[in-house]
């Protein structure tokens, strides 16, 4: 098992639009159905895997292009350290002063190492100076506990 890191910053409006953050359903609309539904299915199937927007389900990052992987580690502590570095890097830009609290950030890093050690994924989000948003994710791979059928993006 190893862990991949993902980072996204963008507008709050983009992040709040959930439709492009959802993968397409596993099966297309039935033949003979409404043409607009089939067209929308085709658009989502083409766009979701290549869009850099954070997916609604953390494990779905594994569907995204390998170029979005910001780091890969075998050890949970190393992945959690990456998270800590990013939290500290962006802390001055957090919109809410409570999000900048060093004790709170250290607790997030500690809990990340623990969660990753048993194969859990994690995702954190922070509002930055308006109207931006920061999304950080660490995803377990080979296999992922919640979606074991997903392949490693680096293979």
Characterise the protein shown here.
The protein is α+β, with helices and mostly antiparallel strands. Helix content is 32%, strand content 19%. The chain is built from four helices and four strands, in the order βααβααββ. The protein has a four-stranded antiparallel β-sheet. Strand 3 and strand 4 (132-141) form a beta hairpin.
What is the fold's blueprint, element by element?
Blueprint: E1 2-11, H1 12-16, H2 35-47, E2 71-73, H3 76-90, H4 102-117, E3 122-127, E4 132-141
Antiparallel strand pairs: 1-2, 1-4, 3-4
Helix pairs in contact: 3-4
**Unreliably modeled segments:** none
The helix/strand order is: EHHEHHEE
Strand adjacency order, main sheet = 2-1-4-3
Strand fraction equals 15-25%
What overall geometry do the principal axes of the alpha carbons give?
globular
Mean pLDDT: 94
Tell me about the largest β-sheet.
Answer: 4 strands, antiparallel
Rg (CA only): 17 Å
N→C terminal distance: 14 Å
Tally of DSSP β-strands: 4
> Level of helix content?
25-40%
Given the helix and strand composition, which structural class is it?
Answer: alpha+beta
Note the main attributes of this structure:
single chain; 155 residues; alpha+beta; 4-stranded antiparallel beta sheet; 4 helices; globular
Quick recap:
The chain is of the alpha+beta class and 155 residues long.
